[in-house]
User: Fold this.
Amino acid sequence: MTTEIIKQTMREKNRKLPIANRKSEQGMSLLAILAVMSIFAMSLLAVAPTVYIEVQREKELEQIRRGEEVAKAIEQYVLFYQGRKLPNSLDDLLEGLPQGTKKRMILRPSAAVDPLSEDGKWRLVKPTSQAFIGFGKRVQVYNNGLLPSSSSRIFDQFALPLVNIINTKSESDTEEADETEIDDVTDNTPFIGVASQSKSKSIIAYYGIENHSKWIYTPLFRGAGTSAVNPRSQDTRFPQSNTQVQDK
Assistant:
């Protein structure tokens, strides 16, 4: 009788062992999956900043390309009207310029959208605004103290009134004005340039400027040689594209 009991107990233990082994294996598999998931999550966290920087850099480069197109369109518009008027909205540029019985297109619709602004609208920068004065000062500092001329003397009427202001405005004055520089609107005002509504710090340095809202795309300050704005400045050669871009 005792022997039968012992045999029965052994059979029950043997039946339970595979179940226990299976549970142990399942536990180990779960731990392995959790470990792999943890490593994967850590890898994503490590890569995320690099991905963000690259995506943001591409958006900034795209904005610069579009901003340069707008600046070129403003230049064509002002030259066509011999400086008698500035565009009042981007629609003026999108409509094109009269050419016989047709219109000559000077701006693509895609360039009229700012990829860095939430609503896609550019700020329209007036020639007497604090933002424009601040940009002129920064261009002058970036160009070793020399303010480049414009591509045509037609633009001097917009640039010359700024000379005394820019030349007497110290770097500290420019810094103090930063908080009040964003004084431009997005429609229905005569403008000489456009800028972003985004106030974020940039990945790229544009003319040494590292803030989206301070990048102004304008046909002014693009000439070469002696400047009508600063007659003593020699050989102030800024590329016509105005794309003075630096990676930080």
In short: The chain has one domain: 60-247. Residues 60-247 form one domain. The radius of gyration is 32 Å. Residues 2-80 form the longest helix (79 residues).
